[in-house]
Amino acid sequence: MTPPLPEDESAEDLRRDEVSAARSAELFYGNVNEFVTDRLVHLYPLPGPTSTLVWCPEWYRHAPALSRLDSIWRAWEHLRFDPAVGMSNWWLHHADPHMRVLLDPVDGPFARCGNGHVGNEPLPLVEPPADLFFDQRNPWLQTGDPFALD
Predict the structure, then answer these.
(1) Which of 38, 45, 78, 85 has the highest local Cβ count within 10 Å?
(2) What is the pLDDT of residues 79-92, one digit of tens each?
């Protein structure tokens, strides 16, 4: 048996909530490229000749940029349904912090792209000892002391 509706919530309220929940699952943009080309590039001005900011037109060839721009897009998709503070939250906590990193002329992923795209080199690595790490997806397979280096 279905429990009765709370007195303060009508069937219409429940239907509206369900429609709203379904709506929030729909993406406005089909992918990050659509978001960047249709919206983001219009929200940030092109760095001028005296600016130190750097943008790479081939942003999609930089893994850190692709990851950050995808995060900005997904946050926008989620927060666009909040009519009160959604966009303010998006600017303050998502777009501006990520764009500061992306456009940084010294440490950003586009830092070497001032005169056209230049690929980034990954950080150097030294292979760790074979038994130092275990597969976290199977924690019951752990044997020995994971912090012992010898």
Answers:
(1) 78
(2) 999 999 999 999 99
Q: Could you tell me the residue range of the domain that residue 85 belongs to?
A: 57-116
Cβ atoms of 144 and 131 within 8 Å: the answer is yes
Provide the strand spans (E) within the chain: none
Rounded-to-integer distance, Cα 90 and Cα 93, Å: 6
Phi-psi region of 105 (alpha: psi -120 to 50; beta: other; left: phi over 0): alpha
Buried/exposed code over 66-97 (b: 16+ C-beta within 10 A; e: otherwise): bebbeebbebbbebeeeeeeeeeebeeebbee
CA dist., res. 142 & res. 150, Å (int): 16
- Interval 22-52: pLDDT, tens: 565 689 999 999 999 999 999 998 877 888 8
3-state secondary structure of 109: coil
Q: Report the domain count for the chain.
A: 1
